[in-house]
Amino acid sequence: MSTFPPEIIEAILFRLPAKSLGRFKSVSKPWYFLISNPQFIKTHMLQNKTSKMILISDSKTLYSLDINELHTYPNNNNGDEDITTTATEITFPLVQYSIKWEKILGSCNGLVLAKDEDDAIFLINPTTQEVRKVPSSPFALPFDESFIMHGFGYNPCTQDYHVITISFWDETENEHHPDDTYMYVNIYSLRENSWMELSDSPYDHAFGNLTSGILVNENLHWLTSRRPCYTTVIAAFSLVNKEFNEIEYPHSINNGNGVFNELIVVGGKLCIFGARLGNHLWVMEEYGVKESWIKICLHGIEIDPVKPICSVDGSDRDVVLGDEDGIVVYNMDDTRCRNLRIVGGPNGFAIGGTYVESLESPKCTP
What we know:
9% of the residues lie in helices and 43% in strands. The protein is mainly beta. The strands form five sheets. Strands 1, 2, 3, 4, 22, 23, 24, 25 and 26 form a nine-stranded mixed sheet that branches. The radius of gyration is 21 Å and the shape is globular. Residues 1-44 form the F-box domain. It comes from Artemisia annua. This is F-box domain-containing protein.
């Protein structure tokens, strides 16, 4: 390879999977510095957006599920086709102790924000097997007297990753501040490895489930209610200007049922899904434009409840759906639901979310 011009070597490396490139760092010092270069990492990620699903097993370990290498085979029970894919356990060889994972809180550019059973939070890269523990916020409310929600994303202007927390007092446990209804917002900078306080959220986040922020267009989104009339709205926190904006609900959704709905992202677009919406998925086709909400009916789905998780790479018609009993792949054209059989995976698991393979490091930023 040394006889090839550097630009040819770089072009070849751009085409390789992130996991392979991680191993090739040890080939030589020039390769190490090239593959570790922030611009190389960014360009490689843009050219190789391979999506994976992340699972949390009943034994609190993590598994990566390939949702792009799908193989079909006949189901002898119903004469239809099932789909199979492979799961691989995610390990962190340099961590000297066992981490019992509890929940996935978000992902961005190949980095995953995860919480363990002791409520410590970590930034991990499942592809490179790197892990970094995020320090506790000095501004955090007492854990046993409050609720907290997280969000994770990237500010392209400062090239920095941020963890966002929104916390508020638990009315039933809070004896010292019974009238405190503020929604406290803190932000962590990966580059600075430090926390800071921001202005309180103007929205009421004590609303439905304590879900993590949904990342779309450098904004983190939560279902909230607008004070004082408590109308259901989508609060969007900008990672660029560090302020909240508002995205309105579709006209035809019953506003009073907002507490039963959930925000998700499918195909890079903000979506609303929920038990009270039937098998309907609301998709915001043009971000921030209320009139661009469209309703998609998911016909022929027999499992209930079900939740869209992601679209299959290379297809805008195949959607991966999950429920309490397993995972299916749904085609919106022929309305077929095919079971997804997992090879090499755990017997029991919870669906954590998705991430893309990348070389981005949780230990530092450019």
